[in-house]
Amino acid sequence: MTHARQHTIQVVAHRGASEDAPEHTLAAYVKAIEDGADALECDVRLTADGHLVCVHDRRVNRTSNGRGAVSALELADLAALDFGSRKDSHESPDWSDPEYTSVLTLERLLELVADAGRRVELAIETKHPTRWAGQVEERLVRLLRRFGLADPPTPAESAVRIMSFSPRSLHRVAAAVPTVPTVYLTQFVAPRLREGRLPAGARIAGPSIRIIRSHPAYVERLHEAGLQVHVWTVDTPEDVDLCIRLGVDAIITNRPKQVLSQLGRA
Ligand code: G3P
Ligand code: CA
Fold this sequence. Notes:
By secondary structure, the protein is α/β, with parallel strands linked by helices. The chain has one domain: TIM Barrel, CATH 3.20.20. Helices cover 30% and strands 17% of the residues. The chain has helices at 26-35, 75-79, 106-114, 135-146, 167-176, 191-194, 209-214, 217-224, 237-246, 256-262; strands spanning 10-14, 39-46, 52-54, 121-126, 160-164, 182-186, 204-207, 228-231, 250-253. The model has no long low-confidence stretch (mean pLDDT 92). Residues 14, 41, 43, 56, 125, 185, 232, 252 line the site of SN-glycerol-3-phosphate.
């Protein structure tokens, strides 16, 4: 029998409020902050000239009007593209300023959060970091230092956390900024998850909702091991209900407004 813990479930806007605005754009993150999200999720990749940008896919083809791999393009190339042009299946607000739909750098996102006027946390995911042999983490840590986010007194007080499917990436981050929490993401059931343990350096478990649907007991096991559980990507009322019943610590969703409403917080 699983007992839900008495705590506030954090609502994390996945790629911004990406159900309502083009993913990973300033538009999506401004909307998420307006909707009341507790935290913002973003994926980061390195451009050919060494900038961290918020893009999920290896290529820009799906989310922009351009083509090519992020790693082969310079920031100026990316800045010439429209990342709002492919959001044709949903109604978007009228974001007439191109700044809202151009490529978003991690630096700009950090500025947005710093100017939010309330505490908004950031969950930053490193994408395919092994390819860059530590450069992604190095630049990420440099940016965190610049924004005063690299040395929280304790992990619980940190306003930022780093997520990855790559244990090596999490290890690099933990070695450089030990009090910034790291989240080990898993898409499929991993033996270590079953046993309630994470790779060295990881402090939080980040299982997919698919894992939690088929193995709900994992949440209690991970909690008993002293770990938090952040579940992605939770978009249906049924899945939100399941997360509430199990007492997960964070719900990562494309629909922060609806989830906050279901939690009775909007
Ligand atoms: O928040 C974790 C989740 O974003 C991982 O999957 O593919 O959406 O980056 P993906
Ligand atoms: Ca992600």
